[in-house]
Specification:
Blueprint lengths: L4 E5 L3 H12 L4 E5 L2 H10 L7 E5 L7 H11 L4 E6 L4 H9 L4 E4 L4 H31 L10 H13 L6 E4 L6 H10 L8 E5 L5 H9 L16 H4 L4 E5 L6 H13 L1 E2 L8 E2 L3 E6 L3 H6 L5 H7 L2 E4 L7 H19 L5 E2 L1 H9 L5 H15 L4 E2 L6 H4 L4 H4 L10 H15 L4 H8 L3 H10 L12
Length: 463
């Protein structure tokens, strides 16, 4: 409780001296104000050294306590205020409580009562500050970071996501694996009225049906062997917040029916339970499956599909976002170099061109992996095309690069030797990087180099 700053405002000098003596004797820092206007001016001008508690008298000549409280709340809404009132002004104290005062003391009050109210008020202030800190941390944890949208395709998706964020309607996000469905879900949550609550997510395809049911709905004690105590599920933990159901297309028919009840009625039964539990959850679901086809073929409930698909978002694959690849690559470079303490700071323009020409079956997730791999292999501050996988940098390419004899194809042995020479030239003779480009082991490359005599100094080898 030490090091707390307490303000006292009362136009009776005797009361100010009494309170200052009592509180400084307990180790508090105290500032006194005999005028409400002086108090308000101090609160308005002193932005850094703000009080933890204000003791405010109800009856003062210059301005009454109620009006002073209103102005204090406007300046510092979270300040803990305790009103001091004499006999016959209890109604005013009640009004002050309605305006946000924490408590009131009726004069004359013993010092034990004063200390108890001050202690409770400061404890409440500390809890509120901890709560604000935790909420800030939650928001930071849920922050997906910058979302790259240089081209129209993804910009339109983000625009719609931002517009629907503040509603409580369910959202269904469709797209190939790796397109950023969870990133968009977090973006919606962060821009919603539930942003100060924790974003919860579960991959429905990663768990067996019984385990998924227990994770979602929780269970009562004795619900199954080993259930020695009751456990809340994600639905209860996500109350008043957002629950992201990834790979919803993989949920079994029986669980689909239970999820439908939550979406329709806002209630569910925990595993083994008989009493419904009520929740207020905003659902965002995602899948890489064609849910309309799944519905048509009887594998997904039509009513659940329409409950989830109030707002539908379709994420374009990365091959349709060529304009975004340059910025995405540089974003991932910054991210992975910071994480891995890598010296790489730049991406060669030829490497960017190769990235833009790739069809990215793994989408954004694949791009991030490629950039991380490249920063590990790169020597120096620039990631070049040599550090990209063969399927992206187009090594090997036998047809145009393999030498021909009189217009006829050369032997496979000559073709293989030529590709090894190209890889070694491309990597400046670095055998580990050359082996990686050729997608063979370093041991195999060393054997091939020896076999083809590429480690000799007869003019045909590679230094």
């Amino acid at each position: 409780m030490l090091d707390h700053l307490i303000y006292i405002c009362d136009d009776e000098d005797g009361m100010l001296r009494y309170l200052r003596k009592m509180l400084t004797g307990q180790g508090f820092s105290v500032e006194v104000f005999s005028s409400p206007l002086l108090l308000l001016r101090n609160l308005e001008e002193s932005a850094e050294d703000t009080p933890d508690l204000l003791l405010l008298d109800m009856k003062m000549t210059e301005m009454d306590g109620i009006e002073t409280l209103r102005r204090v709340r406007a300046l510092q809404p979270s300040l803990c205020v305790v009103m001091m009132t004499g006999h016959g002004t209890i109604d005013s104290a009640v009004e002050a409580m309605k305006l946000g005062a924490f408590d009131y003391l009726t004069k004359p009050f013993p010092q034990e009562k004063l200390f108890a109210v001050v202690r409770h008020c400061l404890e409440r202030s500390e809890l509120l500050e901890e709560n604000r800190t935790l909420r800030r941390e939650i928001r930071n944890q849920d922050d997906p970071g910058p979302i790259i949208a240089e081209g129209d395709a993804f910009r339109e998706v983000l625009d719609l996501a931002r517009r629907v964020a503040n509603s409580d309607s369910s959202v269904l996000i469709l797209g190939e694996s790796g397109t950023g469905k969870e990133v968009v879900a977090r973006y919606i949550h962060r821009n919603s009225a539930r942003a100060d609550r924790r974003f919860l997510a579960i991959n429905c395809a990663a768990l067996a049906e019984t385990l998924l049911e227990s994770q979602l709905f929780g269970h009562v004690k004795g619900a199954f062997t080993g259930a020695s105590q009751a456990q809340k599920g994600l639905l209860e933990e996500a109350n008043d917040s957002t629950l992201f159901l990834d790979e919803i297309g993989d949920v079994s028919p029986s669980l689909q029916a239970k999820l439908l009840r939550v979406l329709q009625e806002g209630e569910f039964l925990p595993v083994g339970g008989t009493k419904p539990r009520h929740v207020d959850v905003r659902f965002i679901a995602a899948t890489n499956k064609d849910l309309e086809k799944e519905v048509a073929e009887g594998r997904f409930r039509e009513d659940l599909f329409y409950r989830l698909n109030v707002i539908g978002l379709h994420l374009p694959p990365l091959r349709e976002r060529v304009e975004d690849i340059d910025s995405l690559a540089r974003h991932f470079l910054k991210k992975v170099t910071a994480r891995n303490n890598s010296p790489v700071r730049h991406i060669d323009p030829q490497a960017i061109a190769a990235l833009q020409a790739h069809d990215w079956p793994g989408n954004v997730r694949e791009l991030e992996n490629v950039i991380e791999r490249g920063t590990i292999l790169a020597e120096g501050e620039t990631l070049t095309v040599a550090e990209l996988p063969v399927k992206i940098n187009q090594l090997p390419r036998p047809a145009p690069t393999v030498p021909r004899a009189g217009g006829n194809p050369v032997s496979l042995r000559e073709a293989e030797k030529h590709q090894i020479v190209l890889a070694l030239e491309r990597t400046g003779g670095n055998k580990s990087r050359a082996a990686d480009l050729l997608e063979i082991t370093r041991k195999t490359l060393a054997r091939k180099i020896k076999e083809y005599g590429l480690d000799s100094n007869d003019g045909q080898g590679v230094p």
